[in-house]
């Protein structure tokens, strides 16, 4: 138990350093370039998202992002350790780190940076490889060995495809959300097809509920843009925890 806790804490420390340094820096650079491109030569914003992004830009500073990741990553570690599956925490932390900053970026500017989604996808790929390695070490049959790969790729294709269809109608989903849905399938598909599907549905439900509440208190209108990424990420993290437990 001591050794496994040390491994998990080491992974948490490495990911915390990454979030505090290069990962949060990527987000700030992305938003900075976006703000620069979204302003005309006269200095007036041409994108309605710009004023809000300027007000919330400070949320991407290293300190707030580090604290946010420590809270989310710490909860993930606690869940996995209590469930006796320490390796799930070690595998999930890189994905959680990238998604935490990606969700914050989406909340600031309504965009999900491809580079952060790519980092999360690499972490998900490592998880799939680890699942295959464990199956091979256990002497599993070929069907059992390939199950995590098939499940993840199938879920990524299915959720990505459904997200793409929804993005073609007035659903509030953008291409960044489509990529995020595919990523959720890739990350959680090895637990079974139901896990990523429930995570996606939960995320959409949370986003819809918040939108209804905001409209009820007159803080938003039907045409107000709402960042979907944070809610999809919360849904994915919730079902991951339930799958681990």
From TrEMBL:
The keyword Membrane is assigned to this record: yes
Protein keywords: Membrane, Transmembrane, Transmembrane helix
Highest taxon, organism lineage: Bacteria
Chain ranges passing through the membrane: 66-83, 90-109, 115-138, 145-173, 193-217, 224-243
This protein's record includes keyword Lipoprotein: no
Name by which UniProt lists this protein: Prepilin peptidase
Organism of derivation: Actinomyces gaoshouyii
